[in-house]
Amino acid sequence: MSPDGPLERVSTGHLPDDATVTTLLQAAYALHRDVRDGHVATYIPQLARADPGWCAASVVSVTGRSFDVGDSDERFSIQSVSKPFVLALVIEALGADRARELLGANATGLPFDSVTAVEVHDHRTMNAMVNAGAIAASSLLQEVARVSPGTSVPDTEAAWASARDGLSAFAGRRLEVDDDVYACESETNLRNRGIAHLLRSYGRIHCEPEVAVDLYTRQCSLAVDVHDLGVMAATLADGGVNPVTGERVVSDGTCARVLAAMATAGLYELSGDWLWEVGLPGKSGVSGAVLTVAPGKGGLAAWSPPLDAAGNSVRGQLVTRSLSRALGLNVFASNPDPHDVPP
Ligand code: GLU
After folding, report:
1. Lowest CB count within 10 Å: 21, 130, 248, 285, which one?
2. What are the pLDDT digits (tens) for 88-106?
């Protein structure tokens, strides 16, 4: 079976058996691991140290079966792939309608850290997958802490604990901040601080701007491996229940809204191209991760540091596209009904 097969392959149930998934994952990885296009991100100095040859992928089914290939033991900072999960926590705390009102649900068509996008759109934050909306989402983490069990004072540290604990529940293990990335990004995140203050001027941020950016920078600095991201994606695919730990992390309704946000803007301004090619909600980050969700079936994660001009991992996109096609995961693909069953 070719890992770059045609779109017509359609899966209606679960992922195939273990041997088939293993074969397809290894074939997709082998096909793209030697691609040399793209450049490692340098605007956060710590990321510039990444080995451009690193490449790994993971598939985790909604029944908890997992398959990893490549440099799956290497850890990297989660970066923007944290955004859907913080959005999920905010939706749980505030409700979907209020979260949409405060953060937005539409694409900007502009780069993820665009200041222009804040100025030209009356909504300002636009969506939680770009930095403006994500920093605004982080500014609501005290509201998440307020509804978290055991929180007496929802201060900045309680807000951070809610984020770290929430993302850890998605991953099924306790995630820790990479202190070097956090320190380095805290020194260089002037643009994000500018966005936060600009949002404050429009009344679109909900705690002190510097606190919101600090929470956002910490969440971006959490260290993960590709398997963690596979489990996190599978939790979104499984209606909010982590299929490995069995813990309900968020509701099924929250997952559906998060996947809508990912489909709209998860791969920066190339999200339309991504949907065209892959047909699944995804989220990328500048450390080279691409996390993708096949609702009701499983999660895919691919990681390789060299990025395209928009900031998406070149090999990560190729491996995911091959897997989506080979496993028949495109949510827009259908075959004509054979009409052999009476209506
Ligand atoms: N922490 C990074 C930033 O805000 C995340 C960027 C990304 O992964 O898109 O610049």
Report:
1. 248
2. 999 999 999 999 999 999 9
| The amino acid at 278 | V
pTM exceeding the 0.90 threshold for the entire prediction: yes
State whether the beta carbon of 182 lies less than 6 angstroms from ligand 1.
Answer: no
Q: Which tens digit of pLDDT belongs to each residue from 149-189?
A: 887 888 999 999 999 999 999 999 999 999 999 999 999 99
Q: 39-78 burial, b if ≥16 CB within 10 A, otherwise e? A: ebbeebebbeebeeebbbbbbbbbebbbbbbbbbeeebbb
Q: Ligand 1 atom 2: the closest Cα is on which residue?
A: 79
**Contact 112 CB / ligand 1 (< 6 Å):** yes
Domains and CATH numbers, the chain: 18-79+222-332 (3.40.710.10), 82-220 (3.40.710.10)
List helix spans (H) across the chain.
Answer: 18-32, 83-94, 96-103, 116-120, 131-138, 141-146, 156-171, 179-188, 190-201, 209-220, 226-237, 252-265, 271-278, 314-327
